[in-house]
Amino acid sequence: MLVKRVLVVGGGTAGWMAAAALAHKFAGTNLAITLVESAEIGTVGVGEATIPHIRHFNATLGIDEAEFLAATKGTYKLGIEFADWGRIGDSYVHPFAEFGAPIDGVPFHQQWLAAQGAGAFEDYSLPIQAARRGRFRRPEGDPYNYAYQFDAGLYAKFLRNYAEARGVVRREGRILDVALDSESGFVRSVTLESGESIEAELFLDCSGFRGLIIEQALKAGYEEWTHWLPCDRAIAIPCANTGPLAPYTRTAAQEAGWIWRIPLQHRTGNGHVYSSGFLSDEAALETLLAQLPGAPLADPNKLRFVTGKRKQQWVGNTIAIGLASGFLEPLESTSIHLIQVAIGRLLDLFPTQDWDPLDAQEFNRLMALDYERVRDFLILHYHCQERDDSDFWRHCRAMTLPDSLETKLALFRERGVVMQYREGTFLEPSWLAVYLGQHVIPRHADPRAGGEGVAQAMAAMRAEIAALAEAMPSHEAALGVAA
């Protein structure tokens, strides 16, 4: 009873991730998967940094890590450094791991808050200490997690080869028309500029910002969030590598936004995300060029976007994935992750020919939660800071917060409690990294914190983490590339 024909509209990272996942999931069945894309239509292709969930996606598809890293010129990623965010001169790292370990049944961050002077909070994170030293080792057991930094264009090519080897058919061409059923409103077919018509039962709209089917044909509507996340422009420029490959992504806050730096094996990715309401395009480009660590390798790629999401991401027999479904700026490397989440939801709720409307309803509910909770995490970075050097930062600090974030923030400020979600991307350590990294200090620590032996336990923990980090090989050695 499952649908038998799927058409993926658009290639790029989203399209080929979807096609590869479907080809793997339905191997040996009669599901026909077609992907249509035009070589004349460029892809955004700047999503070079990820979070650890991508490892599960690759592993599920049976992709060998070494082969993947070689094909995508990838590097390892232990976290994200945030420079000049809370205050000018600051630097903290959001790692993919817990900080410390509970002592006497009390959460570690509560013991650290009560200790007042037991070293920096990041001294109790092995991945941060490894990142600061430019070192990496795959974890044994589960002491920390890691992600990747890679060339998104090469990743799409890698997945295309994977998908086509498993029966996915690629069709070249621009889509000129979308035919809807007059009774159900479902999409029946698309027509290419060649005149060829392609029919399907399920359509995956991976057409990027324009939302060729979900918006242009089905009018899903868009929920805009620029009043909370005012950045609406980005400029990306790759440059030559000039030093050791850092095992982390770097973001540095600027006058009206932030600059990213992502080290790959063959180049460094750089970009400036900014608000056009506070900074001109010319000034933004000038700022980015002034901070390039090496010689530029391409012309600037200029992007415009509206932060938010489609009001419905599954409409009728069409599901939007990737930029067609919405856009949250890449501050926490969530773009590829949200593609992965949508694909996972689709596989869990894969439609039958009966088209139960509850499937679409549940998909839309869960994706809305994912987008909103990532949104709140991003807003936290902009709002909780003490910068007073520009109108942009003063605006962000004065903004009214979503109720969901206001409640979460108030709870932490009072007792250091991190509100937990059943659904959501970022867990307690992530929130702690940003809260404490940007000087959100609770008024009260857990009254159980402190006591005999706690200071010694913390000192031992700190020393052990430093020793483990020092013993790791260099990032280049772990990758097997020349330093």
Q: Can you characterise this structure?
A:
This protein has 483 residues and is an alpha+beta fold. The protein is 34% helix and 19% strand. The strands form 5 sheets. The chain has a 7-stranded mixed beta sheet. Strands 7-2-1-11-20-19 form a 6-stranded mixed beta sheet. The longest helix has 27 residues, at 357-383. It is globular, with a radius of gyration of 23 Å. It starts with a strand and ends with a helix. The model has no long low-confidence stretch (mean pLDDT 95).
Outline:
With 483 residues, this protein is α+β, with helices and mostly antiparallel strands. It has 14 helices and 21 strands.
Secondary structure topology:
Elements (H helix, E strand, L loop, with lengths): L4 E5 L2 H14 L6 E6 L15 H8 L4 H8 L2 E3 L1 E5 L7 E5 L12 H8 L10 H7 L14 E3 L2 H13 L4 E4 L2 E6 L6 E6 L4 E3 L2 E4 L16 E3 L8 E7 L9 E6 L2 E7 L4 E7 L6 H10 L10 E4 L3 E3 L3 E2 L2 E3 L5 E2 L7 H14 L8 H27 L7 H8 L4 H13 L12 H10 L16 H17 L4 H5 L4
Parallel strand pairs: 1-2, 1-11, 2-7, 4-14, 11-20
Antiparallel strand pairs: 3-6, 4-5, 8-9, 9-10, 12-18, 13-16, 13-17, 14-15, 15-16, 18-21, 19-20
Helix pairs in contact: 1-6, 1-8, 5-13, 8-9
